[in-house]
Design goal:
By secondary structure, the chain is of the alpha/beta class. It folds into 2 domains: 11-215, Alanine racemase (TIM Barrel, Alpha-Beta Barrel), CATH 3.20.20; 233-355, Lyase, Ornithine Decarboxylase, Chain A, domain 1, CATH 2.40.37.10. The chain has 11 helices and 19 strands. The relative contact order is 0.14. The structure holds pyridoxal-5'-phosphate. This is Alanine racemase.
Amino acid sequence: MPRPISATIHLDALENNLAVIRNKVGNSKIWAVVKANAYGHGLRCIWPHLDQADGFALLDFNEAILLRKQGWQRPILLLEGFFQPEDLRIIDEYQLTTVVHSHWQLKAIEAANFSNPINIYLKLNSGMNRLGFPADQYRDVLSLARNIRQIGQITLMSHFANADKKIGVTEQLNVIDSVSQGLNISQCLANSGACLWYPQTHRDWVRTGIALYGASPSGKWEDIADVGLKAVMSLKSEIIAVQNLKAGDKIGYGSKYTASCPMRVGTVACGYADGYPRSAMTGTPVIVNGVRTQMLGAISMDMMTVDLTPCPQAQIGSPVELWGQNLPVDDVAGVPGTIGYELLCALADRVPVSVCR
Ligand SMILES: *Cc1c(COP(=O)(O)O)cnc(C)c1O
């Protein structure tokens, strides 16, 4: 028997989520964001189930090449652009659309030879101060780009810092709208949060990541509970040992939990080397035998301890859901103060992944 931990990818949930987003964004085209190995879900096995998307957005050249080799013929967007002039050969060979965020990139394009003009996403820094040309230079840069014969279509791209929060997008959207006023240019602005909560940002293309995987852009499941999104990944394991504690007994490294009365606890085959957050602690939710209970003490590399008080029937071999269709990954992430994104992306290579309908 293999170690009992495994992740399952629910393809019907993935297809459902893309349809939910499609419904939200109306006529806007959708980039399915599949960076970071499709947020930990496994790009190779899931991309065919996202083929209703209009394009795939990612940032690793190897992932782009994999999609082309497996037969994807529609657009692929490089979200961070290219990193050195030599990368332009790959962009040309595999017909990739690239973000352009710095002057050196325009110069490199101008100096290169392509079999066809390349399409670019000219990035505007509208306030996040990560990538992009400043608002007061954007129109000049656009004129430069429009005069480079190696460049085909140009799309204005920008990214929101607070589409998931009450702060919202107004301030950045004002910058974008004033820069683009009177320009005849297509636009791509919205991430998942903006797709769900700010319809005025949808424009020509949207870029949807986390919502496709059924987790919340805000890190809070309540915020998407009535949107119709479903968890795509479930992480499961089993109880591999049971301990009966007396009052005063302690659990795990650092003895961080002390039993205040006699209690039964279970040891689960899941640790931080599987991708579960090392910062998880007492109170992090877990489902054992279909009953919601909690982790106790500190997590080890390969194991964690859970409270069996609410599920007295549980024993060695009882099923454990770490996150998934019955336990939102955001609920798990919230206790150690992180977000579902981080947990999904961190799924470790040693966890076997299978797909199901
Ligand atoms: C990752 C990423 C997205 C997707 O963000 P989600 O919040 O997962 O929808 C969109 N745009 C850019 C530039 C990104 O890097």
